[in-house]
């Protein structure tokens, strides 16, 4: 599954890192649906952390962001440098209350390209990662009219073919 996730994430175009950012950016005291994600289990404090919001169906989950936007489908992105200390959290706006699939990427070298060998991934619901991407239902969460707080655990390559959390790491 991880190989497929790696391929799906690697296939995402990096030429437009701003696509979906304006729509996804949370603003202080702004009402409306949003996810506030606590990032747990970072391998280290370098690079970028990116949170993306997709429609909660297998066809659109981890699909090309340009294609989603061109088709008028939901896509949001929030990206920032990993802070050197303290808790790591990201807020991403949803277009309306409902169920959405989310993916979290730790781009350790900050090149905006997924590296199967070094980068980490995480999803709500913490689905077991194997040789293909998780089903959207396993990586989805529901949000109402306010802010929904979630905790997402990062997974990194362990051994030749598996991904999992870094043992003993909390934040």
Features:
171 residues, 33% strand, mainly beta, three-stranded mixed beta sheet, 12% helix, five-stranded antiparallel beta sheet, 3 helices
Percent range for helical residues? 10-25%
State which percent range the strand residues make up.
Answer: 25-35%
Report the C-alpha radius of gyration, rounded: 15 Å
Give the overall pLDDT as a whole number: 84
Number of helices: 3
- Biggest sheet architecture: 5 strands, antiparallel
Instruction: Report how far the terminal alpha carbons are from each other.
Output: 25 Å
In short:
This protein has 171 residues and is mostly beta strands.
How would you describe the overall organization of this protein?
By secondary structure, this protein is mostly beta strands. The chain has one domain. It is 12% helix and 33% strand. The protein is built from three helices and ten strands. Strands 2, 3, 5, 6 and 7 form a five-stranded antiparallel sheet that branches. The protein has a three-stranded mixed sheet with strand order 4-1-8, with no helix packed on it. A hairpin with a 3-residue loop joins strand 9 (156-158) and strand 10. The radius of gyration is 15 Å and the shape is globular. The two termini are 25 Å apart. 36% of the residues are buried.
